[in-house]
Sequence to fold (372 residues):
Amino acid sequence: MLDILKDAIQSSLNKQITYEQYMNTVLYHENKGYYKKDQVKVGKKGDFITSSNISNVFGKLFATLFHKLIALEKIPPYICEIGGGNGRFAKAVLDELQDSFIETYQKITYIMIETSPYHQRLQRDILPVDKKVIQYQSLDEAKRDFPVFHGIVFSNELFDAFPVRVIEKNDNTIYEVKITLTEEEQLTEILVPLTDEQINKYLDANKIVLTNGQRFEIPLQMLSYLEELTSFLGNAIVFTVDYGYTNAEWKETARIRGSLRGYYNHQLIHNPLLHPGEMDLTTHIHFDTLVTYSSKLGLEFVKKCRQDEFLLEAGILTFLQDNFDPNPFSEKSKQNRAIRSLIMDSGMSASFHVLIQQKNVKVSWENIFQGK
Fold:
């Protein structure tokens, strides 16, 4: 991977590449990119963990919501999961629908969009692919069979993996942070006066004013993907689970150095230039931008709340097992512990938010969150 990056830098204008180019290479290079390689990424043996990998109860709860939307609100029986990873969320959803809502299960088609060939293979090991589940590597590929998608779209930690541009303000001047090589051919950052009009338009449109010393990520690829996604949607509900900040939160002192970082063997790595191709890179998403930009594209805002609050409102406590089980390793005990970890203030849910949007539909959401 280092040789690939060196070649890219040496052949680029001024021998510099943007962070967006760097992230695209180290994460998505066809052979050497982190997400393309045959290695475990999620779970104890990987580099990070997601809510759906803590317990199947996360998927079970969403299965009840999906069932209500389809059975009560007549949303078309198609579920599209973008960035489905190892398939554990999809399996939990399908198992719960089959066990508890068989009529809904029989109607649905589950679409998985996943760029990683490795993760697609893991999905095929546990999911009824070509029976109930259809796999695609991209939205473009899915559009060949579904030119307009009607149904439910779900993603968990999708946008935080999108490559970003990085800027920094010093001495009242805004610079773009780019990547070049030292004389010893080591990766290093370099500050270049900002000239990109797309970035300037983003700052103006979102009324972003940086302070001296502040570093900030610009999610241009997220905007492009929102255009692609909304053009795919017909009558649809969109659930987005991710971590991020509002524009007001970005201004807080704790965010002054931005949010771009790596995860390597479950360790937080502050230097994103370390372990290229071997480490996950992530940023906190811009929730205000996601909401306002997609609203202009036809996605109506329904609600956004912290994941723990959402889980409680959606009824996760109904999955608690009342009977005491002396075996701490039983499925009942593990599920109860997982529920507690998902709703505790100190748990991972406190860092995540759930965003709900809708397009061309009107849902009685009180039936979904309070209905029987």
